[in-house]
Fold this protein.
Amino acid sequence: MTADLKQTPKNKLKRLPERGSYDREKAYAILDEGLICHAGFAMGEDIFVIPMAYARMGDVLVMHGSVASRLAKTLSTGINMSVCVTHLDGLVLARSQFESSMNYRSVVAFGNAVAIIDEDEKNQALKALTEHLVPGRWSDSRQPNRKELGATTVLTMPLQEASIKVRTGPPKDLEKDMDFPSWAGVVPLKVVTGTPIPDPTQDSSVTPPEYVTNYQRPTR
Amino acid sequence: MTADLKQTPKNKLKRLPERGSYDREKAYAILDEGLICHAGFAMGEDIFVIPMAYARMGDVLVMHGSVASRLAKTLSTGINMSVCVTHLDGLVLARSQFESSMNYRSVVAFGNAVAIIDEDEKNQALKALTEHLVPGRWSDSRQPNRKELGATTVLTMPLQEASIKVRTGPPKDLEKDMDFPSWAGVVPLKVVTGTPIPDPTQDSSVTPPEYVTNYQRPTR
């Protein structure tokens, strides 16, 4: 069991603090279940928020995506980032609009991201990115060569300053609204996979592997 | 048909520009299908990325969430934001890692957000936020009173500067990798609803309305 995440003025939970925590294991469970993150950074006065592939490697987050290329020039000195992973678990329909909400689990992490230069480290990070999205795929695919590694920018950011927000359960209407004549409850939401679509160039005798046909995200 | 989104140095598509566009109607379809956005902003040197509820009202985005409260103090002057909505449509398994990817549709919008002060405008924005998430719910719920409106911060941001990125279809392996002996294809992903969960305080004779039992997102 590792230490809790650091509490700072930046990640202090201000609104509805009862929904928040700094528990590192809970944060890691949320990160490990997610598929993409949204990464934010500034370039001069401009703010960018961009979807990226990511993976957790111990206490470090690695990220890959078009943002990495865009940032390549400024990366040598490290770039101040915020990264958010959100699972939307349900629509919460209270009788009153004011108490209506969403069930979700999110982690917001803050830190300085740098590009991985070392070829072996970059390869390990790409392996982690692949295994995060599709466990079992790395060893069953043609791994990157040196030229491809050179053309790929992978960011790494330590997981030190972060916070969790979670809402679960039914709506919580005020006593005075309990007789309002509308249905109240939760519409659950989840991400599911469909039937795998083979590459049309592929011989139809090639069957999808178990890591595709039994694909599932790690559960809480 | 409205004019295309404005192209600027900020939203110029740099990497894989063939995946990008500035088509306003396409951007609006992506926004209208999404459930939450990720909003990014700076406070001093710090960057924040936070999930928020949103809705499109014509050529304007309205947003609501804990970030709004956090920002309330700085909002009078308008705050520079970037807002991203992403649909993850599939995992793209190429034979080579380098060509492996994800199918997605995303919109990144840039602008200055301000808080809505006028009570009627705020009420209209809250209606739009509700109808975006659960069409049909607004008129079937207890709408906000003046006190609740006063306690709610809703942001509004014009949709002027934005860009779209989309990847669809099968993997695109290099010719030299086509004989690599692994399955290639796409694992489709989508968000689905589960069986509605009634509020346990509710009389079991209250049946869920059609907008809950037949819930679906607008399609492309």
User: Anything to note?
Assistant: The first strand of chain A starts at residue 20 and ends at 21. The beta strands of chain A are 20-21, 36-43, 46-57, 60-64, 79-93, 101-115, 154-158, 161-167, 185-193, 197-198. Residues 17-169 of chain A form a domain with the Pnp Oxidase; Chain A fold (CATH 2.30.110.10). Chain A has a mean pLDDT of 91.
